[in-house]
Amino acid sequence: MNTFQLGHLTVNRMGYGAMQLAGAHAFGQPKNRDEALAVLREAVESGVNHIDTSDFYGPHITNQLIREALHPYRDDLTIVTKVGALRGADASWLPAQSPQELETAVHDNLRNLGLDVLDVVNMRLMFDVMAPAEGDIEAHITKLAELQQRGLIRHIGLSNATSRQVQQARAITGIVCVQNQYNLVLRHDDALIDELAQQGIAYVPFFPLGGFSPLQSSILAEVAAELDATPMQTALAWLLQRAPNILLIPGTSTVAHLRQNLAASKLVLPEQAVQRLNSVITSV
Ligand SMILES: NC(=O)c1ccc[n+]([C@@H]2O[C@H](COP(=O)([O-])OP(=O)(O)OC[C@H]3O[C@@H](n4cnc5c(N)ncnc54)[C@H](OP(=O)(O)O)[C@@H]3O)[C@@H](O)[C@H]2O)c1
């Protein structure tokens, strides 16, 4: 299965995460603006039809780059954004979770992406900025459901969420995806992934390559060399084989890395390689 349903939207399982297009730490202008635009155009020309973004990348800059590179958008392109944070002048990540702040964030995304309606909006929870933490999300999801009813949002997802929060949200409205941190060496969400698969909900790991600290593992390097692939390609292929509801949004600011990452969707890991990669978690 190379595609998955986000509500009524069909997306290829290999997508693209746009956060790395802004400056360092997703703040300010890109270090190479032409390359950033080229990455976006080549991604879509190569078959990517799922781009992950947020108006708080830059802030505003990543969405404006997407608009400049790709607007008017192809009919089959799904742009997934997220709300729930703002950036401080020092690049810090600040919670912005009140109903008014969520409404403002939706309008900021619409304006900077040049859209009348957002395909998917993830509610980025901030009870703990770094990891999922329990907390009541009724007010957050009720507000997004209202914006959905007003026709500004097609589908709703969650980010940095616990299993309990997914269930609370689902009691209010449909949830099509969950975006949490997960990769070969960080697997706290193993049970949640399987639970969501049963419910037909996509799991979209952020930092699939380790994010700001790229993955490093001797086992990963060995397996990759045996498969004549790069460690990053092998880590992405492992995620694709981990569960059918996993959608990938690896981020890069270069066309060269984009090409390598997209090629990972064709890399099939033999069972023995999967077993060795599964053991990485116990050896780090
Ligand atoms: N919901 C959330 O809270 C949240 C948080 C973080 C991110 N996200 C989303 O998740 C997406 C993915 O996360 P991410 O971009 O931060 O991290 P990532 O995909 O794990 O890794 C990106 C890092 O890996 C490098 N890289 C990419 N491809 C590579 C390759 N083939 N070989 C070597 N290095 C490579 C990139 O550098 P180069 O630019 O040099 O390639 C960048 O430093 C983001 O773009 C964003 O859309 C969501």
Automatic annotation (TrEMBL):
Residues 13-280 form the NADP-dependent oxidoreductase domain. SUPFAM superfamilies: NAD(P)-linked oxidoreductase (SSF51430). Pfam families: Aldo_ket_red. GO terms for molecular function: oxidoreductase activity. The keyword Oxidoreductase applies. The keyword NADP does not apply. GO terms for cellular component: cytoplasm. Keywords: Oxidoreductase. InterPro entries: AKR, Aldo-Keto_reductase, NAD(P)_OxRdtase_dom_sf, NADP_OxRdtase_dom. NCBIfam families: PRK10376.1 (NF007695). This is Oxidoreductase.
